[in-house]
Amino acid sequence: MNTTNPFDEIEQFLGRTPFAGERAWGRDLRTADVDVAEYDDEFVVTADLPGFDRDGIDVRVDDDRLTIAAERDAEREDADRRYLRRERRHESVTRTIDLPATARTGDASATYRNGVLTVTVPLDAVDADEGHRIDVN
């Protein structure tokens, strides 16, 4: 006779699994998913930050490293609501990317549209005279 407890399945769905242990409630820190592209004249980082307000996003350059950090609070506590479980309280994401040596960080720009942050950092032109081509025979 195999008896299953339906509450065990619910707890597994909510994050209590033998593999993950207890879910971290409240403050959660994770990394932002990014695409990084380097072109001839610019370095572009695109980060998915859905649901964040522009004011909650911080973009910084320090020691040739670009850091994107974002924070948000979920909906405010509603005194008229009787919560059985509150999981959506606070979320933070962060990501640090090394910039190329030719990056002109003082001229960098950032835009945030439809949950996607795009950071563009111009690059100094690489002087073609800095080396020479070696033909392969």
Automatic annotation (TrEMBL):
Residues 25-137 form the SHSP domain. InterPro entries: A-crystallin/Hsp20_dom, HSP20-like_chaperone, Small_HSP. It comes from the Archaea. Gene3D superfamilies: 2.60.40.790. PROSITE patterns: SHSP. Signal peptide: none annotated. Coiled coil: none annotated. Belongs to the small heat shock protein (HSP20) family. PANTHER family: HEAT-SHOCK PROTEIN 20 FAMILY MEMBER (PTHR11527). NCBIfam families: Hsp14 (NF041799). This is Hsp20/alpha crystallin family protein. It comes from Halorubrum ruber.
